[in-house]
């Protein structure tokens, strides 16, 4: 693809070419009209000089051609001059009889007409002089003309000079356009240089002291780097937390395996196997939650937001029935209303968050458990509620502090579940609220800004 400078220069050049054609036509038309007006005045002046020099002697017109008339016509030195003086009877008194008046101009006292002079295009002026004397009564017409070389030359000269001015101004415009484009691109070059010189791990915002038009791109670039920085930080924390969380259960499994290989008592071997199974199941749940957290972190910045009805999320999680398989002894009820509870979010992330809240309710709450979605004070809420009292107030406050520090992933598996729900809430502009309700029940809820109502 060509450079922006070349494209602007080409655009200006095309504009100048089109403008040059238009200006050429207009300049030639103006030049031809100006030349015609100027030389027509010379012809008319010469004809008037000749007409004023006609006198009457003994009843006959006497003509003495004035030098001044030909001096006026001498301003076109390369043109041929012709004249004809016509008496009252229509006879030629002097001059070229080849000069013929147009048939539709015989009654015109004065004016102009185009014709030819010995095969060359010519322009003529007519001046009539009326005599009313006893010896001469009638009109004498004076016809003076010249060829059109000087006229055409003047028209071409005006056109040529106009094109010279257009070419000079066009060249100046192209140079100015190049200079302006280069000056406009200078901030981009500075930005590119700054990005090239940066450390690959430096995702701090770029300097926004750039022209307003370029600031839009800088803001978008800074926003992209901020999202990338959040994802990288989240991934670094996830890797660190994974190493921290897995070290102990893996070491415990290895120790139990060593005990099993060195144990001779069959009953003790069975207990070791039970512990290994319990540890393996716990490790599996921990890995599932960590993978869920990685999915939520990834989708939080990359997934496309869409209008989601939180009632559908609660209904899908309830109908999937995972709780009935894993915790058949726990009763779960669905509580959704008839009004839509819509938010702008991502369906898989919301499902993952609700599943983790439900899993925590199974582990640490009391039946019956309810899941639902509702509108509360202009907020769209999806929640899980159980009959237990939940953690005490001090523990709830500590959980909130850990959410703010972003270190909950280092806690137990319950903390991981809440951390996943908290990440989903923050990703879509909401919050995780853990509270004891007025009915002596414990509720974990995700609160979001309700999406604007869609028109019918």
TrEMBL record:
<protein>
    <recommendedName>
        <fullName>histidine kinase</fullName>
        <ecNumber>2.7.13.3</ecNumber>
    </recommendedName>
</protein>
<dbReference type="InterPro" id="IPR003594">
    <property type="entry name" value="HATPase_dom"/>
</dbReference>
<dbReference type="Pfam" id="PF02518">
    <property type="entry name" value="HATPase_c"/>
</dbReference>
<dbReference type="GO" id="GO:0005886">
    <property type="term" value="C:plasma membrane"/>
</dbReference>
<keyword id="KW-1133">Transmembrane helix</keyword>
<keyword id="KW-0812">Transmembrane</keyword>
<dbReference type="InterPro" id="IPR036097">
    <property type="entry name" value="HisK_dim/P_sf"/>
</dbReference>
<dbReference type="InterPro" id="IPR036890">
    <property type="entry name" value="HATPase_C_sf"/>
</dbReference>
<dbReference type="Pfam" id="PF08521">
    <property type="entry name" value="2CSK_N"/>
</dbReference>
<keyword id="KW-0902">Two-component regulatory system</keyword>
<dbReference type="InterPro" id="IPR003661">
    <property type="entry name" value="HisK_dim/P_dom"/>
</dbReference>
<keyword id="KW-0418">Kinase</keyword>
<keyword id="KW-0808">Transferase</keyword>
<feature type="domain" description="HAMP">
    <location>
        <begin position="182"/>
        <end position="233"/>
    </location>
</feature>
<keyword id="KW-0597">Phosphoprotein</keyword>
<dbReference type="InterPro" id="IPR013727">
    <property type="entry name" value="2CSK_N"/>
</dbReference>
<dbReference type="InterPro" id="IPR005467">
    <property type="entry name" value="His_kinase_dom"/>
</dbReference>
<keyword id="KW-0472">Membrane</keyword>
<feature type="transmembrane region" description="Helical">
    <location>
        <begin position="6"/>
        <end position="31"/>
    </location>
</feature>
<dbReference type="GO" id="GO:0000155">
    <property type="term" value="F:phosphorelay sensor kinase activity"/>
</dbReference>
<dbReference type="Pfam" id="PF00512">
    <property type="entry name" value="HisKA"/>
</dbReference>
<dbReference type="InterPro" id="IPR050428">
    <property type="entry name" value="TCS_sensor_his_kinase"/>
</dbReference>
<feature type="transmembrane region" description="Helical">
    <location>
        <begin position="162"/>
        <end position="181"/>
    </location>
</feature>
<feature type="domain" description="Histidine kinase">
    <location>
        <begin position="241"/>
        <end position="452"/>
    </location>
</feature>
<dbReference type="InterPro" id="IPR003660">
    <property type="entry name" value="HAMP_dom"/>
</dbReference>
């Amino acid at each position: 693809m060509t450079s922006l400078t070349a494209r602007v220069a080409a655009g200006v050049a095309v504009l100048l070419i089109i403008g040059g054609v238009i200006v050429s036509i207009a300049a030639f038309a103006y030049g031809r009209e100006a030349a015609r007006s100027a030389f027509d005045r010379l012809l008319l002046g010469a004809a008037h000089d000749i007409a004023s020099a006609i006198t009457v002697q003994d009843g006959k017109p006497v003509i003495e051609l004035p030098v001044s008339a030909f001096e006026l016509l001498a301003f076109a030195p390369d043109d041929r001059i012709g004249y004809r003086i016509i008496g009252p009877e229509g006879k030629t008194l002097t001059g070229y009889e080849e000069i013929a008046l147009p048939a539709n101009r015989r009654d015109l006292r004065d004016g102009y007409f185009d014709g030819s002079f010995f095969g060359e295009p010519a322009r003529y002026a007519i001046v009539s002089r009326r005599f009313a004397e006893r010896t001469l009564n009638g009109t004498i017409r004076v016809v003076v003309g010249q060829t059109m070389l000087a006229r055409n030359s003047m028209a071409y000269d005006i056109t040529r000079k106009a094109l010279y001015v257009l070419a000079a101004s066009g060249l100046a415009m192209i140079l100015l356009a190049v200079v302006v484009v280069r000056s406009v691109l200078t901030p981009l070059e500075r930005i590119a240089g700054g990005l090239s010189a940066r450390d690959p791990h430096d995702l701090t915002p770029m300097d926004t002291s750039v022209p307003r038009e370029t600031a839009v791109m800088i803001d978008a670039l800074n926003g992209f780097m901020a999202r990338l920085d959040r994802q990288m930080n989240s991934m670094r924390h996830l890797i660190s937390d994974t190493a921290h969380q897995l070290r102990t259960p893996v070491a415990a499994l290895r120790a139990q395996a060593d005990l099993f290989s060195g144990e001779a008592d069959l009953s003790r071997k069975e207990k070791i196997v039970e512990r290994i199974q319990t540890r393996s199941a716990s490790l599996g749940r921990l890995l599932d939650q960590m993978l869920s957290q990685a999915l939520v972190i990834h989708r939080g910045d990359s997934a496309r937001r869409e209008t989601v009805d939180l009632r559908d999320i609660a209904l899908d999680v309830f109908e999937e029935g995972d709780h009935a398989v894993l915790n058949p002894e726990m009763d779960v009820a669905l509580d959704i209303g008839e009004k839509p509870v819509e938010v702008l979010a991502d369906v898989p992330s919301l499902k993952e968050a609700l599943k983790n809240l439900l899993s925590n309710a199974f582990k640490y709450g009391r039946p019956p458990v309810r899941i639902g979605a509702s509108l509360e004070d202009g907020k769209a809420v999806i929640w899980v509620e159980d009959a237990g009292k939940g953690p005490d107030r001090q523990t709830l406050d500590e959980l909130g502090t850990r959410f703010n520090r972003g270190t909950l992933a280092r806690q137990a598996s319950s903390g991981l579940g809440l951390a996943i729900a908290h990440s989903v809430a923050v990703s879509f502009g909401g919050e995780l609220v853990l509270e004891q309700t007025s009915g002596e029940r414990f509720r974990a809820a995700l609160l979001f800004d309700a999406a604007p109502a869609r028109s019918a």
